[in-house]
Amino acid sequence: MTVDETMGPPWSATVRRGADGALVVGGVDVRWLAATYGTATYVLDEVDLRTRARQLRTTLQAAFAQVGAQVDLYYAGKAFLCVAVARWVHDEGLGVDTATGGELGVALYAGVPGQRIGLHGNNKSDAEIARALDAGVARIVIDAPDEVDRIADAVALRGGGRADVMVRVTTGVHAGGHEYISTSHEDQKFGLSIVPGPDGSDSPALATLRAVVARPELHLTGIHSHIGSQILDPGGFVAAVSKVLTLRAEVAQTTGVLVDEVDLGGGFGIAYLPDDVALDFERVAKDLAAAAVDAAAQLGTPLPKFSFEPGRSIVGPAGMTLYEVGTVKPVRLADGTVRTYVSVDGGMSDNIRPALYQADYHAVLASRTGAPETVQARVVGKHCESGDIVVRDVQLPADIRRGDLLAVAATGAYGRSMASTYNLVPRPPVVAVAEGSARALLRRETDADLLAFDQG
After folding, report:
1. Same domain, 182 and 288
2. DSSP letter at 429?
3. pLDDT of 41-77, one tens digit each?
């Protein structure tokens, strides 16, 4: 079958529309995927994901190498993590950043060495800390003052040694696509503020960093900052790097310890709509490297090693969700216009982001060539909520009908990882495609799976 050119953003790099109008991803026709795995189904483009991981790593490393600094990357598993994805990113030279014991367990099961794993979390359990120590993770990121003694005491219980830790700080730099995913202002649960007390006392961040240095069971490897998610303006990263390097110098002045590493988190924004412009990684890398050099020169300190934790920017564009159309219902609005509600066999249980963040997505008819005329459409799910919206506004062919396949772009991040079984709808499978073949990474849940938890 002959195919046209790639679809372009926000689709993964291998998505094409065939001569008969059907989408092909990773060399696999979506109609075959639907017939084989059913719908709704998450489709993950392995080549696209690997390429993004590799390019992001090499771009950041090349930019910082120009100023004499090293860079390491950890894939943010919260975006989407399974055994295969953990292995893919490890193959491409990335570590894995985990936020819970479950994510840590998956990374370890996948064969990722402990020294290539980090553990985050604003409320780590004793069991999570113990498992991280036993696995020899590269760093435990301290998120609250009491974690200093909890981790140090856990190390002491093991008969000695030292745990590598970082301290997460909030720089006051506000960035991100929604209030809920902007994570560096003071009024939220993550990190420790760098703002001194009203009486001039140490900031919570500095006090905690000093407490780490005072515990011989802990090795302070660095300072961590994550300013938000879905960031499209590099200015926030530039402002953050100066603040973190200033804090690093302050720690050195007060404790004699100049930490080796600064982690600037992730949050690199992607395109969700055809007209969106994703964050320019090359520009960000160069701007950050230059800002780091300027700040270090003013402070009189050498550059540290830098690390980053991208997630969405690697897996988000690599994924799409494939649905089958059910009810198609034209609704006349108060202004006299008509909106066509297109219901699909999924919804907020497989993509909560539109309801949670008012996130925008793009959808196309995926199984055939549609009519040239279009209608103003809203793609909705099958759940008992009026807010069960998958795509708020999109132009779809006027002849959209029951049985058609609909594809929604850029769902690789936070679709499956935030999925639920609301209304007892089993979660969809995740199917990887590459070079004309497909395989299930996560199988479809069944009624039997739901009932397996029911002790009634």
Report:
1. yes
2. P
3. 999 999 999 999 999 999 999 999 999 999 999 999 9
